Amino acid sequence: MKGMGNMMKQAQKLQAKMLKLQEELADKTVETTAGGGMIKVVANGRQQILSIQIEKEVVDPDDVEMLQDLILAAVNDALVKSQEMVSGEMSKLAGGLKIPGM
Fold first, then answer.
1. Which residue segment(s) compose the domain that 15 sits in?
2. Residues 33, 42: Cα–Cα separation, whole Å
3. Which is deepest, 6, 14, 36, 95, by most CB within 10 Å?
């Protein structure tokens, strides 16, 4: 039973470290661009979009679909990069263990 108690303590420590890391990841950001830098999107480690910048040159009232596509591409790429950042940090914390849902 002593081994089980140690495992529980280790699990609690790991959980506390994970919660702290999640808080820290909220402050870390990733940035991506689309359209040759005409659209820039910044996301944080909570997969929240923090900002979208659009250069005036890419705004064409006659081609709104292109602008929408560029924004969508940049947002999706920012979210993927954010998820990769979180996965990388979590795997460092877990010592390479695969944690379901992370």
1. 2-93
2. 9
3. 14
Give the E-state strand segments of the chain in sequence order: 29-34, 39-44, 49-54
pLDDT digits (tens, 9 = 90+) for 63-101: 999 999 999 999 999 999 999 998 888 888 766 555 555
Q: Rounded CA gap, 43 and 53, in Å? A: 12
Cβ neighbours around 70 below 10 Å, total? 19
- What's the predicted TM-score (pTM) here? 0.75
Residue pair 73/54 in contact (Cβ under 8 Å)? The answer is no
- What total of structural domains would you count in the chain? 1
Query: Which element (helix H / strand E) includes 70?
Result: helix 64-93
